[in-house]
Design brief:
The complex is a heterodimer. Chain A contains six helices and ten strands. Chain A is an alpha+beta fold. In chain A, the strands form three sheets. Chain A has a five-stranded mixed β-sheet. In chain A, strand 1 and strand 2 form a beta hairpin. Chain A is elongated. The termini of chain A are far apart. Chain B is built from 16 helices and no strands. Chain B has a single domain, classed as Up-down Bundle (Cytochrome C Oxidase, Chain A), CATH 1.20.210. Helix content of chain B is 67%, strand content 0%. Classes of the chains: A alpha+beta, B mainly alpha. The interface between A and B is large, with 84 and 89 residues. The complex binds copper (II) ion (2 copies). One copper (II) ion binds next to helix 7 of chain B.
Chain lengths: 291, 557
């Protein structure tokens, strides 16, 4: 691959690509070589020449059926092997927050077991920008006005992605892999211990007029720099919000967390949900509207 | 011009004759003429796209028009050019003659398919053209063109996100087009089943006819699925039904790709049939491994129905199911490879008549191979998770559909136009066109593989200068204009040598053909054959030519 591949995922995909490329180059030269050779060698020399009327050759035909079959079967197993090594292995089938199956605990566990995660960033695709929400650090941010997704180096970051409108796709080539971001459900992608640097990605599912402007810039920094950035951002946001409950934001939380959240609030025990004070207030406001 | 001196009375009746004809040859010609017109139009849109992308940050066309342009480029090339040209054009004209029939089984339904195709084509393009003109002249946005890309993914294509009427017009156009295609497929299958000349058993069917019936089976099984999906989306948009609006977003993707993956083979199999006709004729040898070629065609068609979800590797589909689709997708490379080697070994040891049809066929094999190989890459899930929707994919399917189908179509035109009009095209211009097209094609699309690997997504109207995409994009745009020039050469060739009657008189059989269309006059009479020929091998005309020498006319099979 021609981009700078920096995470284990991207490197694994790259080496798989290179193995396939090795066979591809061989097949390419054999085919083009035979083609050019026969086009050059067997040009008609005399108007009335009559070549041998050869209808086929079973052995040859078996050869070029079996050998390519073996190659693709080998590539199949190599791909399956790489696939099971990628960070997101086995999780794509489980859009746990899918509105159709709110509260699918098994699926939720599968996501949590899939890979140890240092931090979670919630990403919302919107026509035509990305919204970033740092769950633990309480920072809200977006890709508008060249806003960067700032990540501390060497951490395993899980992206919990959903869409507020049409389909989008998250793709940062240097990190390897992409995933559609769908309305009404969550998709999960991991950034596996990225080294320091600036990276760039772009929405890769056509989403309308300004699809071309839906760019994501990522900046991986040291932990200290990250902490400073978080403080700065929080100051900008006016500290941890403590306004009254907002039912609209609560509705979204409800979609995201389903009845587990609602249940916890009904019981008055939200310690294990990981919800922030503001979020509890929002969710309660929304649940009040349902009464 | 001779036609000017024809009295008005007669000319009008000629027009009426073309509008009311049920003759498969005339119907075929109208299909070809119209499909070629849509090819030019969709090609001009491609030039607009390539001009816009030639450098970063260009504003040659508006973002809004760009999005409509790539939507209509794709749908125009697929639904109004490649499929109707190969199936409606070549298929209608040559299949009945190749099997020794006097017409299609249902001539009136054939005419109905044609005019429904014409109507659907104008429905699809007319609103878009009006919108385009309105935009250019500053009338503002009429909203009569679709900008949802050819795959019209839900929910973008629903009323909530695409409120303009253009989306509905597009949906109705493709729906009608699908109905026309489905009727055509029925006609093809019944014709081949019931109207073959005596002695023409399954294994003696000409390769083009064989690929055409495989294609017809695919159309019959796949197109109604898309048509139904389009109708449901239309009612979702207009009558508040909820087939797709509240469904899992993957629902539409399944319906769409269940048609649209087989559609690739619908577009490429008949072109494979064309070059499978040309190669043995111009090599003066039987086709290598006829049965293997026929079986691999059928296998490709069959496997083609089991691979659609490889377009959904990043949509969030069950990993186990993904692996199934990865396996079938990679497997399809095997019968495809069999074809490529069989074609090469048809030429091997032959006596090659290096004329334009053969060169186009060699171009087909060379470029299609690259498209096929990169298809295996994209079939590997981890690689697809990196390259899905990138320019790598754009390049891959252009290597298959331009490198394959379009080279096949031009090969077929140089091969068969002398039969249709009784005059030869200029082989010199043909060769120049071939080299320019081959060079322009690779210049356009090879850099796009690099762009994909560099992370450029498809369907973006512009890009920033800091991405390192400038040079491959510029090369690609230069290539696109080279292709356009090569197509212009073809038009010039056609106008001078066929319309202007400068070409040599072709005679019945200018190429020493093998199949029955070379037995009758050029152009063929309305009834095709005075007496229906009897067939003894897959090369009936070879048999006649070599009846008196002892080079074993039938050969061993
Ligand atoms: Cu987008
Ligand atoms: Cu496909």
């Amino acid at each position: 691959m021609l981009v700078n591949t920096v995470t284990a995922d991207a490197i694994a995909i790259n080496s798989l690509y290179n193995i396939a490329l090795f066979f591809a180059v061989i097949v390419f030269f054999i085919v083009q070589g035979l083609l050019l050779f026969s086009a050059y060698k067997y040009k008609r020399k005399k108007a009335d020449e009559l070549p041998a009327q050869n209808h086929g050759n079973m052995k040859l035909e078996l050869f070029w059926t079996i050998v390519p079959a073996l190659i693709v079967i080998m590539l199949f197993f190599l791909s399956a092997n790489t696939l099971s090594q990628l960070s997101g292995a086995g999780t794509q089938a489980s859009p746990i927050h899918n509105v159709h199956k709110i509260g699918d605990d098994n699926a939720k566990r599968r996501i949590e077991d899939a890979k140890r995660t240092d931090m979670i960033i919630e990403i919302s695709g919107r026509q035509w920008f990305w919204q970033y929400k740092y769950i633990k650090d309480g920072v809200n941010h977006s890709s508008q006005n060249d806003g960067e997704l700032v990540i501390p180096e060497g951490k395993v970051v899980r992206l919990d992605m959903n869409s507020k409108d049409v389909l989008h796709a998250w793709w940062v080539p240097s990190f390897g892999g992409m995933l559609y971001v769908n309305p009404g459900e969550m998709s999960y992608l991991w950034i596996d211990k990225p080294p320091r640097g600036s990276y760039i990605g772009q929405c890769n599912a056509y989403c309308g007029l300004q699809h071309a402007q839906m760019i994501s810039r990522i900046k991986v920094v040291s932990q200290a720099e990250y902490d400073t950035w978080v403080k700065l951002k929080k100051a900008e946001q006016g500290g941890v919000a403590t306004e009254g409950g907002n039912a609209e934001r609560g509705a979204q939380l409800y979609v995201d967390g389903g009845y587990t959240y609602a249940e916890a609030i009904a019981k008055g025990d939200t310690k294990n949900t990981g919800l922030q004070a503001q979020e509890v207030a929002d969710l309660s406001a929304y649940l009040d509207t349902l009464k | 011009m001779a036609s000017i001196s024809i009295p008005l009375e007669k000319r009008r009746s000629a027009l009426v004759e073309w509008l009311t004809t049920v003759d498969h040859k005339k119907i075929g010609i109208v299909y070809m003429g119209l499909a070629f017109t849509f090819f030019i139009f969709s090609g001009l849109l491609a030039l607009a796209i390539r001009t816009q992308l030639a450098a970063p940050g260009m504003t040659v066309i508006s973002q809004e028009f760009y999005n409509q342009a790539f939507t209509m480029h794709g749908t125009g090339m697929i639904f109004l050019f490649t499929i109707p040209f190969l199936v409606g054009g070549f298929g209608n004209y040559f299949m009945p003659i190749q099997i020794g029939a006097r017409d299609m089984a249902f001539p009136k339904m054939n005419a109905f398919s044609l005019w429904l195709f014409v109507f659907a084509g104008f429905v699809m393009e007319f609103g878009f053209m009006l919108s385009m003109v309105a935009n250019a002249t500053g009338w503002g946005n009429l909203g009569l063109g679709s900008a949802a890309s050819w795959n019209a993914y839900v929910p973008y294509s629903t009323r909530a996100f695409s409120p303009q009427a253009g989306m509905d017009i597009w949906l109705i156009g493709i729906t009608l087009n699908g109905i026309s295609g489905t009727l055509g497929a029925v006609n093809i299958l019944v014709t081949v089943y019931s109207l073959r000349a005596p002695g023409m058993s399954v294994w003696r069917l000409p390769m083009f006819t064989w690929t055409l019936i495989t294609t017809a089976v695919m159309i019959l099984l796949a197109t109604p699925v898309l048509t139904a999906g389009l109708m449901m989306l239309t009612t979702d948009r207009n009558f508040n039904t909820q087939f797709f609006t509240t469904a899992d977003p993957r629902m539409w993707q399944h319906v769409f790709w269940f048609y649209s993956h087989p559609a690739v083979y619908i577009m490429v199999l008949p072109a494979m049939g064309v070059i499978s006709e040309i190669l043995p004729v111009f090599s003066r040898k039987p086709i290598f491994g006829l049965k293997a070629l026929m079986v691999s065609t059928a296998l490709i068609a069959l496997l083609g129905f089991t691979t659609w979800a490889h377009h959904m590797f990043v949509s969030g589909v069950n990993p186990l199911i993904q692996r199934f689709f990865m396996f079938t997708t990679m497997l399809i490379a095997v019968p495809t490879g069999v074809k490529i080697f069989n074609w090469i070994f048809t030429m091997w040891g032959g006596s090659l008549n290096m004329k334009t049809p053969l060169m186009m066929s060699i171009g087909f094999i060379s470029t299609f191979t690259i498209g096929g190989i990169t298809g295996v890459f994209l079939g590997m899930i981890p690689v697809d998770q990196q390259l899905h929707n990138s320019y790598y994919v754009v390049s891959h399917f252009h290597y298959v559909l331009f490198g394959g189908s379009v080279f096949g179509i031009f090969g077929g035109l140089y091969y068969w136009l002398p039969k249709i009009y009784g005059r030869m095209l200029s082989d010199k211009i043909g060769k120049v066109q071939f080299w320019l097209m081959l060079f322009g094609f690779n210049l356009t699309f090879f850099p796009q593989y690099i762009l994909g690997l560099l992370g450029m997504p498809r369907r973006i109207a512009t890009y920033l200068p800091d991405r390192g995409w400038d040079i491959p994009n510029l090369l690609s745009s230069i290539g696109a204009f080279t292709i356009a020039f090569s197509v212009l050469l073809f038009i010039i060739n056609f106008v001078i040598y066929i319309v202007g009657r400068k070409g040599e008189v072709a005679g019945d059989d200018p190429w020493e053909g093998n199949t029955l269309e070379w037995m009758t006059q050029s152009p063929p009479p309305e009834y095709n054959f005075k007496t229906i020929p009897v067939v003894h091998s897959e090369r009936p005309l070879w048999d006649i030519r070599h009846a008196n020498d002892n080079t074993n006319a039938h050969g061993k099979h």
